[in-house]
Amino acid sequence: MGYVFDFNDAIAYEEWFNNPRNTFAADLESRLMIDLLKPMRGETVLEIGCGTGASLLPFLELGLQMTGLDPSPYMLDIALKNLGNRVDLYRGFAEDLPFEDNSFNYACLITTLEFVEDPKKAVEEACRVAKDKIFIGVLNRYAIKGIQRRVKGIFRRTIYNHAHFFSIWELKQIIRALLGNVPISWRTVCQIPAAPGRITNRIEQSTLLQKCPFGAFAGMVVTLVPRFKTRPLAMTYKRKQTTGVVVG
């Protein structure tokens, strides 16, 4: 089942997003997600592990049809308060999505794999319900910030005690094992632990720097390639009988 956020976790999560000091990082992550996915107005998106709905807002502003799913009723209560009826919200788990195959254009897992019981199964389910692409956003295992978070968890209780951090290479390994050699694009943001400002923003927007695999937040887009399984059909052939007189 993985880790399900409780009431206190949900409140702390909402407070983190409402803190102006964290707005810069959240905006960088949202821009990276939109830039990699390149969604079109009117298309459908499922966010798996939608939490309080903060990551759904950028999609809504682009005119996309949004659906959110989360296992925590406390997170969903806050999402409903923040988003109202603009989004369809469901309670469920990433490893067992309550949707038909190819139900959405895109499926997103944004800081969700860190807390699920079976990350590979969660990605497999995302691929099942999406038609075009999936986006995976994770807390980077090899970023300075990621190391700081894990060390901090040694000395006091934090939500990151329950998290499994990922790297670009681990994500690729999961994707290749499930889908083979499909097209993959990735970038990272929050490269430098500096206060937000004009210079910091310009540096963070550099496409060249975003190809560095050590940013605190790593985003990956997988383009889904249709696969068709066929089985040979037995063919029957009726031999035509001929009659005649053989003259010697």
For this entry, give a set of tags.
7-stranded mixed beta sheet; 9 helices; Rossmann fold; alpha/beta; 248 residues
Task: Write a structural description.
The protein is α/β, with parallel strands linked by helices and 248 residues long. It has one domain (7-223): Rossmann fold (3-Layer(aba) Sandwich), CATH 3.40.50.150. 37% of the residues lie in helices and 18% in strands. The protein has helices spanning 7-18, 20-37, 57-61, 73-83, 119-129, 144-155, 168-179, 198-204, 207-210, and strands spanning 44-48, 65-70, 88-91, 104-110, 130-139, 184-189, 217-223. It has a seven-stranded mixed beta sheet with strand order 3-2-1-4-5-7-6, sandwiched between helices. The N and C termini lie far apart (85 Å). The mean pLDDT is 87.
Summarize the structure.
It contains nine helices and seven strands.
Instruction: Give me the CATH architecture, please.
Output: 3-Layer(aba) Sandwich
Low-pLDDT sequence parts = none
User: Which term fits the overall shape?
Assistant: globular
Order of helices and strands: HHEHEHEEHEHHEHHE
Question: Helical region count?
Answer: 9
Walk across the major sheet and give the strand order.
3-2-1-4-5-7-6
Radius of gyration: 23 Å
Q: Give the C-level CATH assignment.
A: Alpha Beta
CATH superfamily: Vaccinia Virus protein VP39
Q: Which percent band covers the strand fraction?
A: 15-25%
Mean pLDDT: 87
- The portion of residues assigned to helices is 25-40%
Structural class estimated from helices and strands: alpha/beta
CATH fold annotation: Rossmann fold
Give the terminus-to-terminus CA distance. 85 Å
Number of strands: 7
